[in-house]
Amino acid sequence: MSKSIIEKPRIVFFLDRLGIIFFWLRWVYPKSKGIGFAYLLYVFLPQKILRINGKAKWPMHFTSRVICPNNVELGNHSAPGLNSCCYIQAKNKIRIGHNFRMGPGVGLISANHDSSNYDVWKIDEPIIIGDNVWLGMNTVVLPGIKIGDNVIVAANSVVTMSIPSNVVAGGNPCRIIKQKQPYKGFDYSRL
User: Fold this and answer.
1) For residues 147 and 127, what is the distance between their CA atoms, to the nearest angstrom?
2) Alpha-carbon distance 39 to 33, whole Å?
3) For residue range 52-86, what is the model confidence (pLDDT) as tens digits?
4) Model-level pTM greater than 0.85?
């Protein structure tokens, strides 16, 4: 029988146990509820001292980029851009639920340029992403898309249409592949 759980590195457990020492990180990252102290420490120097993505109120990797971070609403245990090379453009707002995961290279694009004048951004609906959603590596989510709860989007997908809850989707353009079992992990909405 294969082992399906990979254990966290010991340093992560060690740093989380020292949480009392790092309590001040919760003030520096007010939208980091549910994120471990090891991750907060990892991004602290580049983000808060060197000011790479310094306006984001959640932890972000120094190779990721966010535009209009004040237009991003986050649930607990959600940190878009914590992986490398992510692009988050929130001109028309992005709402993300609890327990959101995104792989490296993911793009969340909430506004496009006007096709007749590239200096103007088109007004559109916000991107809305539900609870317990996982976007695989290099996925792109376009403006006005709604992704339901308990959804996995496969790597290299381009999400051009809204996706209902409880499915696995993928492809370019993204289509439903199969139904998904209910999420059985921790309920981060209770934090």
Assistant:
1) 8
2) 12
3) 999 999 999 999 999 999 999 999 999 999 999 99
4) yes
CB atoms within 10 A of CB 49: 9
For the packed helices 37-44 and 10-17, what is the interaxial angle rounded to 10 degrees? Answer: 90
Residues 34-46 pLDDT 10s: 888 888 989 999 9
Cα–Cα distance for residue pair 42/97, rounded to 1 Å: 24
Q: What is the mean pLDDT of the chain?
A: 92
Q: Which domain holds residue 65?
A: 10-181
Contact status, residue 107 vs residue 141, Cβ threshold 8 Å = yes
In this predicted structure, the answer to whether residue 5 has a pLDDT above a threshold of 90 is: no
Give how many domains the chain has, as a whole number.
Answer: 1
User: Residue 32, class by beta-carbon neighbours within 10 Å (0-12 exposed, 13-18 middle, 19+ buried)?
Assistant: buried
Q: Which two tokens stand for residue 60?
A: 């972000």
Query: What is the reported pLDDT for 178?
Result: 97
> Does 120 reside within a domain?
yes
The CATH number that applies at residue 78 is 2.160.10.10
Q: How far apart are CA 151 and CA 133, in angstroms?
A: 5
Give the residue numbers annotated as catalytic, written as ranges: 113
